[in-house]
Amino acid sequence: MTYSGIWPVAPTPFHPDGTLDLEGMKRVLDCLIDQGADGICILANFSEQFLISDAEREVLARLSVEHIAGRVPVIVTISHYATQIAVERAQFAKDLGADIVMMMPPYHGALLKGTPEQSFEQFAAVGEVGIPIMVQDAPLSGVDLPVPLLVRMAKEIEAVKLFKIECPRAANKIRTLIEKGGDAIEAPFDGEEAITLLADLDAGATGSMTSGMIVDQIKPVITKYHSGDLDGATAAYGRVAMAINHENRQCGWQSCKAAMVEGGVITSDFCRHPIPPLHPAIRARLLDLITPLNPLVLRWGK
Prior knowledge:
- This protein is of the alpha/beta class.
- The protein is built from 11 helices and 10 strands.
- The protein has helices at residues 22-34, 54-68, 83-96, 116-127, 147-156, 170-181, 197-203, 215-226, 230-251, 254-262, 280-290; strands at residues 5-6, 40-42, 74-77, 100-103, 107-108, 112-113, 133-137, 160-165, 187-190, 207-208.
- It starts with a strand and ends in a 12-residue tail after the last helix.
């Protein structure tokens, strides 16, 4: 499998009463595929995984893998502080037919954080399941994953093949990771809604895990860059940069849901308490920024 391109995170739609919108979930997945997604990640932070019960995780994972039905690879997020539970989640994802699992290092709240050795041990345990692993290096965990630790994982844990680097100054870390890890670093990706995408591509990123909002508008940045058209990639990025900045700094995952409601993909952008709704002015500015781009998400359900 080639790990490159744009692999968006699928949002989780809810009905206004807070229950899962399963038909909406299918439409989300179809919309992402129609936007040109090269892979799809579910149950990630931008899927509101911290607001979803364990039983709902299983329902969403099964529905997603079955509905995508091999059209694109599926990444299932399995992060948990308990190694045993992370292993069980990985096995469940593998049994469903998922292609990859993604996980942050062990953490729970501000004070329970895995040491470098504990983090290595957890990834090694999940590696025994025998499904490729994407290491998520995200500020949300609060756990430092220095390059030597990531290189050790890549070289000593066969399943560790992909890296989602979304820490501050991600490009520097991606560049160093590739320099130190060599061929063991099969797929360095960035995240953070692609807010540092050009610099990360310069550093050697093979792909990006964005939100599902404007996948079709961000994808040309990656395809043009990898084809050697750097001027075209720069122009394509300049076209979407303001929208990405607004999403990253003002909206978070709610941007994608707002756009999908506007385009008739889903019927509600409800987020479970304690997440407040987007401020109307923030939402309006988002739509003002993405509408001129004419993204498929605003036309898909109409």
